Here is the input.
Amino acid sequence: MKGKVLIIFSALTLVSCRVNQKSQNDLNYMQNIEQTAVENSLKNSKSTIQSGDQLVILITAKDMDVVKPFNQNYSSSEIVQTNATAGGNMPNQGAANVSGPTYIVDSEGNIDFPTLGVISTKGKTLVELKDELREKIQKFVINPTINVRLANFKITVLGEVNRQGDYTISNGQGTILNALGMAGDLTMYGKREDVLVIRTENGFVSHGKVNLMDAGLINSPYYHLKQGDAIIVSANNTKDIQAKQNPNTGLYLTAASIAITAAAVIVSLIRK
Here is the structure.
C-alpha cells in the first residue's frame, strides 16, 4: 500500500512539473524576437484621419497676434482633457492636457479652418495634415509652428485582461502591446496566441488575430493600433475547464489527499 502511495505521489509530481513548465512557456511574449526581422512594421503604422476625429490644432509664432486669425478665438485657458488610461477606471493616472482649438472631422472628412476655409483630411495622416497647413499658412506668417494632435484616439480592450475598458491614447499612436499594458496585461487565463482585433476604418469593418508569443506580430497590420480598434482576449482551456467544474471539486481533492495520507500512515503503523 505504501509503495502504491509513493508511486501515485511521484506521478502527480511529474505531471505538476510538466504543467508548470507548459504554463511558463505559454505566458512568455514574443519568444522568437531574436529570429524575427522587422519588415513591414513601419508600413503598417500609417493611421489616417477618420470622420469624427477630434483634432487639436494650434498655430504659434514669435508674434502671437499675427496667428490669431488661424486659431478661431482660442485662448490659453481652453484645454482639452485626455486620459491615457482606462476611461473612468483610473482617471488620475496618465492624464495629459492637450491645449488648442478643437476641430471635429465631418462625415466628408473635412474641417472648417479659420481664414483658410474648408480643408480635406481624407486619407491623410496627422503629419501630412500638419505639412499642408504649414505650407498654406507660410503665405501669411513667417516661420509658423504647427501643432496637430488627435484628442480622442480611443480603443477598447475586453476579455481576459486585468482592467477592461475604453482607453484614450493622447498622442494618437500606440501598439497592441501599449493597449494591453494600459489594461494591466492579460490574466493567467488569457489566450495569448489568439488575440482578436476588430477594426472600423473608412466605414469598413475588418478583423485579424495576433499571436503575442510570436515576435512576428510586429509585422502584422494589427500591431499598430488605429482609431476605434477593439482588442478582445478570449479565455484559454484552463478557464473553460474551471468554469465547467463543480465548485466543490477543490474540497473533494483536498479530502482525498488527506485520506490517502492518513491511509499511508495507518498502514505504516500496522506494519510496525
